[in-house]
Every structure is written in C-alpha cells, then in structure tokens.
Amino acid sequence: MDKFIFLDTETTGNDLLNDRLCQVCYKTSDGIYSGFFKPPIPVSIKAMSITNITNKMLEDKEAFKDSAMKRDLEVRLADGILVAHNAKFDCAMLEAEGMSVPRRICTFRVARHLDPENKIPEYNLSYLRYYLDLEVEGAYAHEAEGDVKVLYALFNRLLAKMIKEGLTEEKAIAEMLDVSSRPSLFKLFNFGKYKDKKIEEVAKTDRGYLEWMLSKKIEEGSQDEDWIHTLEYYLKN
C-alpha cells in the first residue's frame, strides 16, 4: 500500500467550481496527516452545520497553498495514487490550489461498478460503512480523519472483493483506475416509481420519464456524472 494516498477534504461548501478546502487529511503507509487551513472564501453556514468547522476556527490558520502539507502531498501524488470517495470533488479542491493529481481511484465509482444490479440503496461513505459492516474505530462522519479511516477500510473491502472474484491485485488496481476515469453505466433504477426495473426497458415504455430526469439534473446543476451519462446513453440507444 506504499503508493496509495487515502485522502479527504472538508470544504467551504459543495460547489465543485467555487468552493475551496479548509481541512485536508490523508493516510499513507507511514501515518495519518491532518491540517486546517484558511480558505480564500468564507465557510458557508450549511458547511459549518455539517462539519462543525467555523470561520473563527480558521482565521489564524495559514493558506493551504503556502503549507508544508501541500508540498508533501505534491511529492507523494507525483508517484502515487490518490484514493478518495467521490474523487472528482476532492481532486477539484486540490486542483483549485494549483495541484495536479495524475492518478486517482474513486471508491464511490468502484463501489457502484461492483454493484451492477444497483442493490445498494445509497453510495455515500457513511452509508457504505454500515451497509458493508466495516470495522472502523474512532471514525466520525464529516470529520476528515474519521472519513479517511472509513475510506481506507472501504478500499480494502472493495479490493478484496475483486481479488476474490479472480483478479490479481495488480489487475484489480488497474480496473479501479479505469472505472474511476469514466462515468458508470447503470442497468436498474433503485429508486422512484420504476424501482428495480431495467432502465433499458423504461426507455422503451416511458422515454419521457428519462427525459424529465435528465432535464432536472441538468437544470439543478447536478454533479452526478454517472446518472447523467446513464440517462443520455439510454436515450440515444
């Protein structure tokens, strides 16, 4: 596991384009590193209500761009693989600080990939922790260090599943990287009036429902590339 950097950020909000990080935590083979940083924009009330990180807590902290943690992380990412849950978001927060993330594994997408029939109702990190009965001590939701501990346990569970299904560790990691690089394609609805129905069949019998879903996601500025990709795929085929 020397090459992996298990990372989580806490941020000023959840806008992929405009929000910024205010806490970074990552786990490597030599320990867990965590730090708070003063962001260039204020932490939103909504974000504070989730993370309990306030602007007052950050007012005397250094900017991440000037930190030793950023320099350390840059060195590790140059040769390593970043692992994050919903990696697109965490990578966007790092890239907003001028960093590059050459290789990444998204446990959110890998978990979905390993559940082709959409049997798992939700894929957020806390839900998967309890759904998969992951044994993690001292981990609290929406706290960066706690989330990193859960992330590490989830990654190991997903990797073990892929190896059990016949892949070598090397091939499993290669597949994780590939899956993480592109949107997932779903086969079933796991919610709504067509729950447990094949999306391909619904596209034939109620095309308008898929068109409505897609327009809503686009209108709301949804960052769920997987569902947008799935809806567009079945509407074109």
Describe this structure in words.
By secondary structure, the protein is an alpha/beta fold. It has 2 domains: 4-180, Ribonuclease H-like superfamily/Ribonuclease H (Nucleotidyltransferase, domain 5, 2-Layer Sandwich), CATH 3.30.420.10; 183-237, no CATH class. The protein has 11 helices and 5 strands. A 5-stranded mixed beta sheet has the order 3-2-1-4-5, sandwiched between helices. Helix 6 (125-131) crosses helix 7 (144-164). The longest helix is centred in the middle third of the chain and has 21 residues, at 144-164. It is globular, with a radius of gyration of 19 Å.
Labels describing this entry:
237 residues, alpha/beta, Nucleotidyltransferase, domain 5, 5 strands
Write the layout of secondary structure elements.
Elements: E1 4-11, E2 21-28, E3 31-36, H1 45-51, H2 55-58, H3 68-79, E4 81-84, H4 87-95, E5 104-106, H5 107-113, H6 125-131, H7 144-164, H8 169-180, H9 199-205, H10 207-219, H11 225-236
Parallel strand pairs: 1-4, 4-5
Antiparallel strand pairs: 1-2, 2-3
Helix pairs in contact: 6-7, 9-10, 10-11
